[in-house]
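Support reply, case 0932

Customer input (verbatim):
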Amino acid sequence: MDKAEKILVLGIDGMDPRLSKYHMEQGYMPNLKEFLKRGSSREDLVLLGAHPTITPPMWTTLATGAYPVTHGITDFWLQDQNNLSIIKYGFDSRNCKAEQLWNVFAESGKKTFLMHWPVSWPPTSQSENLFVIDGTNPEGVCMGSGQTEGEFIAAAANTIKETSYRRKVGKNSTMCVVDDIVMEEDFTDVFAVANSPDIDLVRLVDDTKVFPQANISLDASLSPIKEAEKWSVALPEGAKELTVLLSGGLINRPCLLIPNENGIYDTLLMYKNKKAAEPLAVLPAGQFVEDIVDESIKGDKTYTVSRNMRVLEIAPDASRMRMWISAAVRIDDDSVFSPKSLHQEIVEHVGHPFPVSNIGANDEQLLLDCMCENWMRTMRWWADAIHYMIEKKGVEIVFSQIHNDDAIKHNFYSVNRETAPHGLPLEAYEQAMIEISKQNDYYIGRFLHLLDEGWTIFLVSDHGLVTSEEGQSLYTSSLAKDATFMREWGLTAVKYDENGQPLPEIDWSKTKAICSRSNSIYINLKGRWPTGIVDPADKEQLENEIIGLLYAQRDEKNRPKVALALRNKDAMLLGLGGPESGDIIVMQAEYNLYDHGDGLSTAYGLNHTSLSPIFAAAGVGIKAGFKTSRIIREVDVAPTIALLAQVRMPHECEGAPVYQILAD
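Our regenerated output:
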C-alpha cells in the first residue's frame, strides 16, 4: 500500500448516496461517475451512519473515529448538565472529548487546513501547521460571527404610497407589489436562535416556526415608483426612481429604473445617495450580481459588508419591481480565521466570504434563481479557497465541509409530496433536487485533477435527508423540538395566565419529563436537576411508561410512529447513551420522519431519498474501479485515512480501517 502524502476530505453535508446514484445514472453527475471509476466505494455508495443523523455529532464522528457517546457531541444542542431548562449550542470544539484526526496530522508536521468543518472552532491545536476557517455554524463562513442582517425582498410599485420597511410580511417574492396593505406575523429566526450559546427551553415549548424553512416569512422594503428628480447625475430619459431600505429600514438607498434602447425598463441602478457620481450596483433584471460592498447597521455600529442581489422582475413600463437582497456579511470579520492573517489573504486572492441563503420553498424564483444560484457561487468560492491553500500555502491535508445540499433541501423536503401543503408544484422541487446534485457534481469536478497530482480524495457526508411517505413526525421541527406530545401525555406541564390560557413557560413543579432535543427525553429527576420532582426509585418505571406510550403511537394507516425507543444504557447499541444523551433515546419510523435527525440512518424516503451518508475514495493508496461489499461505518473513515497516511490513530478512535478498498 502506497503512503498517501496529500489527502483531501471532501465533505458535503446532507449528500444522499441513493439520490446521488440515481441522478448519476440519469446523467446529471458525470464527475461523480468519473470519481467512482477511479476509486472505490460500495455499489450503493452508502456509509452506515451513526446517530443521531445531525450535523455536529456526525462530522465529529467523521473527524475522530468515535461515536457520540465517546466524543460527547450528541446533537445540534447539548443539554446543560446543571440546568434541565437550558440547552447549549453544539458547535463549540471545547465540548468534544475525543481527539480529532487533524490534530494528529498537525502534530506529525503536515500542514493541515480545516475549511468550515463543524465543531472545529476554536482551533483544537496551537500547532503552526493548523489553519482553520470557521466551524462555528453549519452553513456559511462568518455567518455566525459576521452576519449583520438577513436576506429580504425589496418591492416597489406605482401603487405603493410611501416607503416603509415591514417585518415578516410574506413567504414569497410576490407580496406587496399591488398596494401597501400587508399582514404581519410573529416569527422566530432560526439563526437568531442557533447563534445563541445557551437557549432557555421556555422559548421552545410551542412550535416557534424555527423549521420548516418552508414557512419562513420575509422582511420587505416597500417603495413607490415615481419620476426621478433632484439627482446630481445626468438622468437617462424616462428614468424612474424608487428607494430600497437596508438594515431594517435604517439605511436608505435611492435607485433608478432605466429603459433600454427600445424603451423597455430592464435595469436598476442602486446609489449610496442622489449626489453619488457612480452607482453602488448595476442590476440588470434577471442577473445575479455578487459582492456588492456597502454599509450595514447592527445595534449602534455601522459595518462595511458584502451582499448579493438579484432583480427578479421589472415591469416593462416600470410600474413595478421586485428584487432579492442577500444577507449582509462584514468584510472585516477575521474572528473565525486562524491565524487571523489568513482572512486578508483569502479576501485578496479569493474574495469576500459569501452570504448564506435560506429561503425559497414557496417561490420558484427564490428557490432556483436566488438560493440555488447563491449556493452555486458559494461552492465556487469554497473551491477557490481550498485551491489557494493547497497551491499557495503548501497545505497537504484538507478537511472541508460545505452545506449547500442540506441547506437547500431543508426548505422543501418536508413538503415534497402530494399529500403535503406544498407551496410550489412538485416539479419545481424536483428541479431543485437536480440542481443540488449538479452543484455537488461541479464541486467534485473542481478537485478531480488532484488525483493526477498525487492526492487521495475522500468524498463523505454526515447524513442524507428524506421526504417521508406520511410526514407525521412526533415533532414539528427538525432543529429544536417542541413539547406538544409530552404535554398531551401529562409529562410536560406549562404555566397558565389568569384567564386559563397556556403561557410559553414550562411549569417544572409539574413536569416529570421533557423532550428537549432531537432524540432525547430527559426525566426531571430529584438530585440531578434543581427542578427535579421524580424520585430516583421511580425513574425506571417512568421510563418504561414513556417507552410504552411512544410505541403505542400510530399514524393514519395504523402503523407505529416510533421504530425504536431505548433507555440510556441500551442506547450504547447506537453509539449514544452516557451523560450527554437523554434518559430515553427515540428513533421514529422511516415513513413518518421530518427530514433528518429523528430516524435511523438506514431510512429510505420518497423521490429516491435516503438518510444515509455517502462514502467514496480515490487516489493514492485506493483501488481503482472497485466495489466492496463491506459495511463501511461512519467511525471507519478516520482510521482509514490515518492508516493511508501512516500516522497514528486518534486516541479515542473506535472504528477500523476499510482494508478492502486499499491498494496492494
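We compared this against your earlier run and they match. Two observations from our side: Residues 146-329 form one domain. The longest helix spans residues 364-393. Please reopen the case if you see a mismatch on your end.
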